[in-house]
Amino acid sequence: MDRLGVYIHIPFCAKKCPYCDFYSVRYNKDLVSRYVDALVRNFRAFRDKYGIHKATSVYFGGGTPLLLSPAQFDTLLSSISECFDIDENAEITAEANPSMSDRTRLSEYRKTGINRISFGAQSFCDDELKALGRTHTADGAKRAVVNAYDAGFENISADIMLGILGQNEESLAKTIDIIGNLPLSHISAYMLKIEENTPYNCDEIKNALPDDDSVAELYLFACKELEERGFLQYEISNFAKQGRQSRHNLLYWKSLDYVGFGAAAHSCFRGSRFAVPCDIGAYIEDITQQEVITDDNPCTFSEYAMLRLRLCEGLSLYKAKERFDFDEKELLRRAEKYRVNNLLKIENDRIILTRQGFLVSNGIIADLIV
Ligand code: SF4
């Protein structure tokens, strides 16, 4: 039986954050209920069309998935287990907003089968949270993590952001110190990126943000400090305690199959990439979800190498050779100038970007695999 990951996009938020361009709409109880019905219909349509697949991970992303009630998660997970053969050790993640920190409610979510929770903490400094337009406080985020742990979640992740308005090494050190004292097993540390159609895309904000050199320093500082606290880097922006790497996200970086459900969800399945249009109304009305092919040949060497080079284990030329025909000598010739500048290293058959290399990874990767 083919193995894959299942992604479910929950495109509802209580309030839109000014830097975010993920597809989401304001929470509406009736709309959410009709959306859950549409998801259930589409899990069944997938099963009827493609048969039952083994699911090694299930990931509810958003948006803000925990705006759904525990009963709605029960409905979704029961339906997913009717339509997929969920591995008994499957990682089942829900993203959460730290303002949802009620222990009793968190334990109800735990009982639905969700076994990993990922909080969009972004920072543990109130000034920075305010600058990001977030509704939670640093204390609220700490409480959310502790209550999730007490509610039975042993695998808890938090996102933090680098390059926030007013952030410096001192404030980042404070955030990382707090992380080190919380029962967290995974951290994603993303650099703030100005997205085109967001209120953040204005001169007032752009001129006030830390410059690129400062953000690079913050990134290197975060990598070092997280590692000292036992969070080992395994991807450009991701760090985990031993054995707690995100199994679902590793599917993306290892070019393995995943299927996405819901408006704005993406899939990589049977040799193609699909996207569901960003339109909740249309999603609910359609009998089966529309999937628009965005790439009918994603399994090229370029794509494979680009994703592998994001990982700290790097690109194994030996393994790549088993799948693709490419000019290994030319690749190594191009890699040499980055190696001498300490932007990558070559260990046995692997090309591995260094942290300095991760900071300019797009340029290096584009040059290596043209
Ligand atoms: S950052 Fe998260 S909570 Fe804020 S708008 Fe985006 S998806 Fe919603």
In short:
The chain has 370 residues and is α/β, with parallel strands linked by helices. It has helices at 29-50, 70-83, 103-111, 126-131, 138-150, 169-180, 203-208, 212-228, 247-253, 280-285, 301-308, 317-323, 328-340, 355-359, 361-368, and strands at residues 3-10, 12-13, 25-26, 53-62, 84-96, 116-122, 155-162, 186-191, 232-235, 238-240, 258-261, 266-269, 272-275, 292-295, 315-316, 344-347, 350-353.
Please tell me about this protein's structure.
- The protein is of the alpha/beta class and 370 residues long.
- It has 2 domains: 3-252, Aldolase class I (TIM Barrel); 301-368, Arc Repressor Mutant, subunit A, CATH 1.10.10.
- It is built from 15 helices and 17 strands.
- It has helices at residues 29-50, 70-83, 103-111, 126-131, 138-150, 169-180, 203-208, 212-228, 247-253, 280-285, 301-308, 317-323, 328-340, 355-359, 361-368, and strands spanning 3-10, 12-13, 25-26, 53-62, 84-96, 116-122, 155-162, 186-191, 232-235, 238-240, 258-261, 266-269, 272-275, 292-295, 315-316, 344-347, 350-353.
- The strands form 4 sheets. It has a 9-stranded mixed sheet with strand order 9-10-8-7-6-5-4-1-11, with helices on both faces. A 3-stranded antiparallel sheet has the order 12-13-14, with no helix packed on it.
- The radius of gyration is 21 Å and the shape is globular.
- The chain binds iron/sulfur cluster.
- Iron/sulfur cluster is lined by residues 13, 16-17, 20, 22, 24, 62-64, 97, 120.
Could you say which overall geometry the principal axes of the C-alpha atoms support? globular
Total helix count? 15
**Which second-level CATH architecture of the largest domain applies?**
Alpha-Beta Barrel
Ligands, ions, cofactors:
iron/sulfur cluster
Strand order across the biggest sheet?
9-10-8-7-6-5-4-1-11
Measured as a percent range, the helix fraction is 40-55%
Main pleated-sheet profile: 9 strands, mixed
According to CATH, the homologous superfamily of the largest domain is Aldolase class I
